[in-house]
Amino acid sequence: MHLCVEFRPVFLGGIFSSIFAGSSVVVVVQNYYLKAISLAISAQVAWWACVVLACALSLSNIMIVRGRRDWVWVMVVYFGACLVTALPAIRYSPHLFIYAESLFWPLLGLLILNSKRHREMRGKLVELRFRRKRIRKIADRLQKR
To answer: Mind telling me which residue stretches traverse the membrane in this protein (predicted)?
Structure first.
């Protein structure tokens, strides 16, 4: 239980920054890149983008909690894609707050993922995964007897 309380702020910070990064980039794409498309199609594209992004984020965070350290790269690619998508929107003279927000949240997310606290959390979760594996082996041996 101590592990959950200890790392909750950094874990939730990563989740919330990814949610805000994705939603702000979807707004930028819908309002500036897909401006020529009808509103109905644009809304449908935005909805499906949100669904796909939420599934990817959920899966990567579940795998990180399960002790799979390499799944953090899904988050890194996600934040990088948000940045690469939002940066060229300056051409369309977007609203300054929306543009700043679409750059701020991915950068904050990358900062959180690279923080000492997040790396420490991932290390502890990997250690916990190996402990669970050893306990399962011992339980299997005891069941076979």
So the answer is: 12-33, 45-64, 71-90, 96-114
